């Protein structure tokens, strides 16, 4: 874990025996969840850096793990084509969601926690009802693996990023793609909404990060500096900064109000 002000690493968390594919803070910031290709999910105590729980149940590598907005549940997506919903206080999977025909690469809860969206190598996004475990919608249109999915802050839209080089913005109520954002020249592994929902940021294998205006569908900024694929991107809580992670072994923090 890094101190953003100083740029120094404050803690190194060790325990997984394989690649770490995803990390995410709990809503209150006291815990961290990590997913790995060692088939486990770990819950870490941020203050101590120690593992509090190891969740086992997937049969292949775990691509994504996220906390629910209330911090009581976890969802994970996996190579075995399933989505698991966990009661991590009990350390058990309480529901397994089946429907995808290939690896589930990303999962995300809606802001109110009632829905879950999953992105898959089967080129679809599924929107699930968390309470029933049933599929509410299947969103189709991407021509390549869907690698990332995120709800808008108001929960009305979904953005998805794909190996097909595009980003799609979907209306959750209708299941229709309202926008197709083009500009990246190669696979887009990550997309995220700004905290106010007015922008999207995308990370791509073309070594760039793009910041999009959600109203116009145009890229307002193209951030260059990484020397290899950019694999992840995240806004600061106030939306003024953007962090990007790359295969070039660096994390960059951008001031998008001045870049």
Brief summary of the model shown:
With 259 residues, this protein is mainly β. The protein is 0% helix and 51% strand.
Can you describe what's shown?
The chain has 259 residues and is mostly beta strands. The protein has one domain: 7 Propeller (Methylamine Dehydrogenase, Chain H), CATH 2.130.10. 0% of the residues lie in helices and 51% in strands. It contains no helices and 23 strands. Strands 1-2-3-4 form a four-stranded antiparallel sheet, with no helix packed on it. Strands 5-6-7-8 form a four-stranded antiparallel sheet, with no helix packed on it. β21 and β22 form a beta hairpin. The two termini are 25 Å apart.
Instruction: From the 3D structure, determine the CATH topology.
Output: Methylamine Dehydrogenase, Chain H
CATH superfamily: YVTN repeat-like/Quinoprotein amine dehydrogenase
Mind summarizing the main beta sheet? 4 strands, antiparallel
Please state the average pLDDT score: 92
From N to C, what is the helix and strand string? EEEEEEEEEEEEEEEEEEEEEEE
How far is the N terminus from the C terminus? 25 Å
Number of helices: 0
- Low-pLDDT parts are none
Q: What is the number of beta strands? A: 23
Please give the CATH class: Mainly Beta
How many domains? The number is 1
Relative helix content = under 10%
Structural class: mainly beta
């Amino acid at each position: 874990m890094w101190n953003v002000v100083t740029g120094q690493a404050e803690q190194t968390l060790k325990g997984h025996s394989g690649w770490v594919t995803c990390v995410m803070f709990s809503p209150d910031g006291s815990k961290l969840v990590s997913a790995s290709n060692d088939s486990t999910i770990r819950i870490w105590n941020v203050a101590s850096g120690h593992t509090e729980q190891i969740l086992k149940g997937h049969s292949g590598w775990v691509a994504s793990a996220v906390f629910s907005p209330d911090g009581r549940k976890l969802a994970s997506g996996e190579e075995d084509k399933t989505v698991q919903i966990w009661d991590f206080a009990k350390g058990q999977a309480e529901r397994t969601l089946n429907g995808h025909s290939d690896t589930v690469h990303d999962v995300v809860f809606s802001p109110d926690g009632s829905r879950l969206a999953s992105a898959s190598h089967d080129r679809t996004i599924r929107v699930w009802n968390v309470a029933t475990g049933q599929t509410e919608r299947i969103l189709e249109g991407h021509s390549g693996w869907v690698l990332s999915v995120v709800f808008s802050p108001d929960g009305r839209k979904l953005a998805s990023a794909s190996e097909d080089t595009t980003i799609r913005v979907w209306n959750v109520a209708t299941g229709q793609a309202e926008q197709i954002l083009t500009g990246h020249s190669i696979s887009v592994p990550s997309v995220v909404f700004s905290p106010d929902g007015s922008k999207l940021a995308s990370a791509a294998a073309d070594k760039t990060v793009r910041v999009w205006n959600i109203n116009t569908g145009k890229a307002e900024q193209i951030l260059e500096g990484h020397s290899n694929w950019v694999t992840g991107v995240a806004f600061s809580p106030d939306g003024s900064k953007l962090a990007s992670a790359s295969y070039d072994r660096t994390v960059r923090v951008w001031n998008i109000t001045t870049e």
